[in-house]
Predict the structure.
Amino acid sequence: MNRVTRRAVLWASMVVAGLVAGGCDRGPKEAPTPTPGGAGGTPTPKVRVVMIPKKKGVPYFTSCAEGAKQAAEELGVELIYDGPTDGSAEKAAAMIERWTAQGVDVIAVSPNDPNVLAPAMRAARQKGVRVITWDADGEADAREFMVNQATSREIGFALVDTMVRDLGGKEQAKGDVAIVTATLTAANQNEWIAFMKERLGEYPELRLVEIKPSNEDQRLAFQVTKDLIAAYPDLRGIWGISSVSFPAAAEAVKQAGKSGKVLVTGLSTPNDMKAAVKEGTVKSVVLWNTKDLGYLTVQAAKALIDGRLKPGNATLEAGRLGAKVIEGDRILLGDILVFTKDNIDHFDF
């Protein structure tokens, strides 16, 4: 074998060895298709938002959750709806602690007792979880923003004005009135009551005689209302200012045979109050669009993570709701609704 032949054989052997070592790959390897998301092809995890109502299972909050789910689907957010079924503030605080430990992005809570929930909310913020409130507010330093259905002044004034109208106007607005609230520690309801008292100053013939808690329990709200009817013969009106106390108060008035004599109004979903409105125990129901409140809450949570929601912002672009006004650290849903027999069938929530 001459020198040229030996070189050819050697070169051929090197090529074969290279092919074997490369798994007989005869062409260049393609770069792997990148996975959409973060660096290195790792998928970007969804933003996780935990939404905690005062009491899970109540139609009002269930309706809020439906709107929240709609926003979550639009934004690609993972929504976790969790809350105490008995309205316990202590259980809500424990849930905040648990979800904080799991490293969620945002916790949106409707505090039943701001003082009880504040330590858990502050601890969540210290660990990097963004915390907002919705429906009801907490301690100001325990959250960044509140998603508010309307100003407390608007709600308090609307409750009084609706009662006066249902009684026949200012000239007929005379006698004793009472309030059945959720709990005496509910910050939002206490603010509403303060503005209700202010507005009642314009109707001196209406005397606010009692403010009774129902502890978000229908049976207690029913009994409290019966007691009020028995204690005050001149009782003309009762406000049920939670979605639990209002239907129960209306049922108590009906069973006492006082429909039309003791007017009941307050805050609840139209679906819960349709029967009472149609039979005349209730003339008006005051509320806001609960689905929109839940929707706005998730929109705010995502905007907070994206950096679109910051202190000093005047508005928030909130999907199908458009631009919502921000007053200080409160994002306002606005648009209080009043449901009567003429329009209540047009609403389904």
Q: What stands out?
A: The first strand starts at residue 48 and ends at 52. The CA atoms of residues 183 and 215 lie 5 Å apart. Confidence is low (pLDDT under 50) at residues 1-40.
